[in-house]
Amino acid sequence: MSIIEINDVYYTYGKDTESPTKAVRGVSLNVDEGEFVAVVGHNGSGKSTLARLMNGLITPDKGSVKVNGLSTSDDKNLFDVRKTVGVVFQNPDNQMVATIIEDDVAFGPENLGLPSEEIRERVDWALKSVGMYEHRGGTPFRLSGGQKQRLAIAGVLAIKPRVMVLDESTSMLDPDGRAEVLEVVRRLNREEKMSVVMITHFMEEALLADRIVVMDKGQIAMEGGKEIFEREDELTAMGLTVPVATRVAHALIRRGVPIDGGVTTAEELIDKLCR
After folding, report:
1. Dist CA 72 CA 56 (whole Å)
2. Hey, what domains does the chain have and what are their CATH numbers?
3. pLDDT tens digits along 230-258
4. Confidence grade of residue 66 (pLDDT, cut at 50, 70, 90)
5. How confident is the model at residue 16 (pLDDT cuts 50, 70, 90)?
6. How confident is the model over 139-184, as pLDDT tens digits?
């Protein structure tokens, strides 16, 4: 069953200016309950606009976006839409609203008008889910980049959304910080059965997903599983790269090394070379 339904959506920035930008053009996409979808594309491909459309931060000029059957274009649905779809943005500092970590996580549940006991339970659960419970009484401004992004995820988790959208949420992190955040996201998807939409330009991150959607010039150019990385020339023409292991495998194949296709990780490459 689809929790998000995007049907033939168009969106233009600066519609009333001399230089409007057509960010999304005729996009249709569904996200199912418990699914992990990666949306990849170069800068300006429309992927971040798609993220904002998913929880009603912006609404389509044409077409429809429905969350759990509710149209995002109807203002009276926005409260329920944003409870259902939580968004974690690129810069965690922009999502911090309090000087104490547990107060920051409590902000969302408090705005839902929940009883204090339930707020406490949600805050503790969210912080434990991202491995930040021991920091609950500290200040967020002394955290590392990866810890800040985990805190931002906890703030969204405390609302208990059914879908988490991560809009380039690891792009400002070092490799260790990225690994921290990705581990949390993967566990939430597998153990909590939370739907995840990851907007990213890191192809290795896209490998975590059940389905990969490639955007180019405001449209969906490709959609599928890991097999899309076999289309290296097409992806390169869109300004994208394939995972390093895939590039190495393709280079070896061109040199006559007998390797089956479908290599996306170093482990897979080593396995095929050792057969």
Report:
1. 5
2. 2-242 (3.40.50.300)
3. 999 999 999 999 988 888 888 888 888 88
4. very high
5. confident
6. 998 999 889 989 999 999 999 999 999 998 888 778 888 888 888 8
The amino acid that residue 95 corresponds to is: Q
145-157 and 116-129 helices, crossing angle to 10°: 140
Tokens 């296709």 sit on residue: 261
User: pTM score, two decimals?
Assistant: 0.90
pLDDT tens-digit profile of 256-266? Answer: 888 877 888 88
Query: What amino acid is encoded at 180 in this protein?
Result: E
Query: Which structure tokens are listed for 179?
Result: 């690994």
Encode the chain in three state secondary structure.
Answer: CEEEEEEEEEEEECCCCCCCEEEEEEEEEEEECCCEEEEECCCCCCHHHHHHHHCCCCCCCEEEEEECCEECCCHHHHHHHHHHEEEECCCHHHHCCCCCHHHHHHHHHHHCCCCHHHHHHHHHHHHHHCCCHHHCCCCHHHCCHHHHHHHHHHHHHCCCCCEEEEECCCCCCCHHHHHHHHHHHHHHHHHCCCEEEEEECCHHHHCCCCEEEEEECCEEEEEECHHHHHCHHHHHHCCCCCCHHHHHHHHHHHCCCCCCCCCCCHHHHHHHHCC
Torsion sign across C-alpha atoms 257, 262, 266, 270: negative
